[in-house]
Amino acid sequence: MFHVKLDFENIVIGGGHAGVEAALASARMGISTLLITMEKSAIARMSCNPAIGGLAKGHLVAEIDALGGEMAKVTDKTGIQFRMLNRSKGRAVWSPRAQADKLQYSLEMISLVVAQKNLEILEDTAIGIITEHNQIVAVQTKKCGFITCKTAIITAGTFLNGLIHIGVKQKRGGRLGEKSALGITESLNAVGIKSGRLKTGTPPRIHRDSINFDQLTPQYGDKNPKPFSFQTKNFNPINIPCYITYTNPGTHAILFSGLDRSPLYTGRIKGVGPRYCPSIEDKIVRFRERTSHQIFLEPEWEDSYQYYVNGFSTSLPVDIQEKGLHSIRGLENAEIIKPGYAIEYDFFPSYQLKRTLETKVIGGLYLAGQVNGTSGYEEAAALGLVAGINAALKNRDEQPFFLTRSEAYIGVLIDDLITKSPTEPYRMFTSSAEYRLLLRFDNADQRLSHYGHRFGLIQHNQFLLSQCRKHLIEKSIRYLHQTSLSPSVINPRLADKLENPVKSGISLFKLLCRPNIHLADLYPLLPESFLRTFSKLDGLAEQVELDVKYHGYIQRQINLIKTQSRQEQIRLPDNIEYLKINSITKEAREKLNLMRPETIAQAGRIPGVSPADITALLILLKKQGVSRETE
Ligand SMILES: Cc1cc2nc3c(=O)[nH]c(=O)nc-3n(C[C@H](O)[C@H](O)[C@H](O)COP(=O)(O)OP(=O)(O)OC[C@H]3O[C@@H](n4cnc5c(N)ncnc54)[C@H](O)[C@@H]3O)c2cc1C
Fold first, then answer.
1. Distance from the CA of 25 to the center of ligand 1, in angstroms?
2. CA distance 204 to 196
3. What are phi and psi of 294, to 5 degrees?
4. Strand partners for 53
5. Which of 405, 415, 424, 473 is deepest in the core (most CB within 10 A)?
6. Ligand 1 pocket residues where CB is under 6 Å
7. Residue with the nearest Cα to atom 12 of ligand 1?
8. CA 37, CA 15: separation in Å to the nearest integer?
């Protein structure tokens, strides 16, 4: 017998990484929210590797935090190893990564959703949506029947018509050991939303006691790690190592011998997989010249008996997986607890979404996470949060929320989805963000916490803390600009650093622009009051130095954004008949008709739409009297 209320303002379907952020944001914004999920104990379960963050993904986590999501805080609280990646490169692309305790991570998220006011959880399977006049009005579930709503967010991950492959065996499932979800895809197709098939894969998990750790190279986290969340205090996590080993020509020969039973190479798998994250069988075929690939063993939780074999994602038959592992140094006796597998699942090509993640076809229906054609916990959580905020705003009859490419990696992610509509699982890369000098991990709170605060997702005192940091940075830079040193004071120090002397007074700012001069070199010359400012907030000095050193590039990016923002503001009417516009190319006509961009700037980013097409569109809009400011 269910005691569930049958009417909610917002319903979230699926309690994965997208679903929890969506449900929490919506409930915290005062909207009565129902989270329908197939298995309560699987909420925020990590399907694949036990890690959060990494290149560009770490930026996403910091942005989720600044907007008021939970992923960063929960990772800080439960992570078992933290490392800053890319330290040898420019500061803009430094990105944190944590080894997660996947059990504690999930438990912590469960406790948050269970305790959340305005949020109810229903353990059930959604099997369809009900619409009226192209608006969502209800969700149908297996056990409870119809539950009415004003908005719904689908975050069903890899579960929609999920099909698992191991060797020649196939089995329905959303993840190994969990059922797939039927009905949602068909229901969306019936209202005109198109779907496709994608594929992803995961490596085997092996038993700790069967690994010969003496033969492996340990890798620990940073000694002084940085937390993901700007709100985390007293950060002192444990530091549990991962281990490195390598495949060899013997391993590759074994894997080759199993290709005739590989679902990938025998054509059983039809869905497209992520090119950037190939399976081990893909790697040995595509990179035949390589005699070795790195394997990274990751503990799945603190004191874990289960290790994740990163780099060995495979859907080859289990006997080949086992033989292949046994040929690797340190894994000669590896005992498989769970085999690697591939999974095919339905997704909804993302050109069908607005930048708020609402579908263009059905009002009040939002899609987020893996169902949008993305891959990764961080991408899913970011999309879930944006969809949750927008569903809440829609319920409150308020203006929608979206982020631009110049504001956030999340803006880049969503813009890429709606203008490029990837046909293979999309993941975030730093190279995808053209304004990456502005979109740093370390300034995410200063860029975005005003939104989180406005939506009531960031506490006032946390917001003030972030504003205080911003203010102190600006004040320090002003001081560096305004304070000059005479040649007699600075030249001896420059000589110590083998730097050219100056002939007249020079500002501290200009000195700091020199690549070999660092803020610490100037400390003996700075007043006590200035140095006290830096001691107030952790990392402040580094941020000031970075802003000064990259000042020229940052200014150029800001100028570029100003030029381009005009095009971001020119709305394209919903009813524009692209197929009838003869002044643009046939390819542009077809692409624009399919993708139906919301602004001229989005249109310009669609592959196949040239600058000449954009000029022709602008002329047409002018003739039709569409003003620039129309929003
Ligand atoms: C085998 C495998 C390998 C992967 N490999 C990688 C990788 O290498 N790299 C990477 O970045 N990512 C990988 N991923 C993807 C990563 O797990 C996802 O990107 C991420 O979990 C997506 O989050 P999500 O919230 O969209 O969905 P999920 O985390 O999949 O969560 C979906 C949730 O929705 C629930 N649900 C589904 N349908 C319904 C329904 N109809 N009614 C009620 N509840 C429903 C499910 O029970 C589940 O709790 C892999 C996933 C799998 C399964």
1. 19
2. 27
3. -75, 140
4. 97
5. 405
6. 13-19, 36-39, 42, 47-48, 125-126, 155-159, 174-175, 181, 184, 200-202, 277, 343, 369-370, 375-377, 380, 427
7. 376
8. 5
Q: What is the DSSP string of 62-91?
A: HHHHHHT-SHHHHHHHH-SEEEEETTTS-G
Going by C-beta distance under 8 Å and a sequence separation of 6 or more, which residues neighbour residue 44? Answer: 15, 16, 17, 20, 74, 105, 106, 109, 110
Distance from C-alpha of 108 to C-alpha of 15, rounded to nearest angstrom:
13
Helices 528-536, 540-549: inter-axial angle, 10-degree rounding: 110
Positive or negative torsion for Cα 607, 609, 610, 614: negative
Q: Which CATH number fits the domain 460-557, given the four candidates 3.40.50.2000, 1.20.1270.60, 1.10.3720.10, 1.10.10.1800?
A: 1.10.10.1800
> In the predicted model, is pLDDT for residue 630 greater than 70?
no
Tokens representing residue 295 in the block: 């394997």
Question: 253 CA distance to ligand 1 centroid (A)?
Answer: 32
User: pLDDT at position 631, please?
Assistant: 33
Tens of pLDDT, residues 26-37: 999 999 999 999
Q: Which DSSP helix (H) or strand (E) runs through 348?
A: none
Are 460-557 and 569-623 the same fold in CATH?
no
| Domain 569-623 part of CATH 1.10.340.30 | no
Backbone angles phi, psi at 241, to 5 degrees: -80, 155
At 148, list the tokens. Answer: 């009415």
What's the whole-model pTM score?
0.93
Half-sphere exposure of 407 (CA within 13 A, CB side): 19
Give the helix ranges, DSSP H, for 516-550. 519-522, 528-536, 540-549
Q: H or E stretch including 296?
A: strand 294-299
Long-range Cβ pairs for the range 451-454 (8 Å, 24+): 451/66, 451/67, 451/401, 452/66, 452/67, 452/68, 453/68
- At 265 the pLDDT is 84
Measuring CA to CA, how many Å separate 587 from each of 415, 580, 595, 612?
A: 20, 13, 12, 13
Ligand 1: nearest atom to the Cα of 375:
19
Q: Bigger pLDDT: 168 or 624? A: 168
Give me the count of residues in the chain.
631
| Domain parsing of the chain, residue ranges | 205-344, 460-557, 569-623
Query: Which residues 6+ apart lie within 8 Å of 627 measured at CB?
Result: none
Q: What angle do helix axes 409-420 and 377-395 make, rounded to 10 degrees?
A: 90
Q: Measured between alpha carbons, how far is 601 from 565 in angstroms, rounded to an integer?
A: 8
Please name the fold of domain 205-344.
Answer: Elongation Factor Tu (Ef-tu); domain 3 (2.40.30)
